[in-house]
Design a protein that fits this description.
168 residues; alpha+beta; Aminopeptidase; six-stranded mixed β-sheet; 4 helices; 9 strands; 24% helix; globular
Length: 168
């Protein structure tokens, strides 16, 4: 069955919430608040990109992108995540296709770069790598990764939206 990747619609919102909760239910290193983070980003108007993967009319994946703030004032950087795939469909390429399309969307916006907090082995395939000059305070450097899309990597601390503090 072909995977259709498209921007979210209002009708997708309940399914995105449920899908995200299910995707992170048994994941290690999570606070199990990812679905609330997506909701809070949307409510604050801070979802720069929100893509869903649909197969046979059912949502099987979702990826969110939101702007991040850099301490040196550099603009044009975004954070990728959460990335969610229905548990029964994980490890089948859906997440990879969502990430690729999300990065294409950033390139179309002429974004400077993208950061994320995640598994280095998974995200390396997209060109993400730890950047010593770009840090997320309190996070082990190997898990905080960046991908430069234009320009150079700034020397700065990164701050995500307050929506990432959402718990309900």
């Amino acid at each position: 069955m072909p995977l259709d990747i498209r921007p979210e619609t209002p009708a997708d919102i309940p399914a995105i919430h449920a899908l995200t909760a299910a995707a992170f239910l048994h994941a290690p290193h999570t606070s199990h608040t990812e679905q609330y983070i997506v909701d809070a980003l949307r409510d604050a108007g801070e979802l720069a990109v929100s893509l869903v993967g649909v197969e046979g009319g059912a949502l099987v994946g979702h990826v969110a992108l939101s702007a991040v703030t850099l301490s040196d004032g550099t603009t044009g950087w975004f954070g990728l995540g959460p990335l969610s795939v229905v548990p029964a469909r994980q490890r089948q390429g859906i997440g990879s296709r969502l990430v690729e399309r999300a990065l294409d969307a950033l390139r179309a916006r002429h974004a400077a770069g993208c950061v994320l907090l995640g598994d280095p082995l998974y995200y390396r395939r997209f060109g993400f790598a730890p950047e010593p000059a770009l840090v997320l305070p309190g996070v082990p450097a190997e898990y905080f990764q960046a991908l430069t899309l234009r320009g150079t990597v700034p020397a700065a601390s990164v701050r995500y939206s307050e929506a990432f503090e959402a718990h309900t």
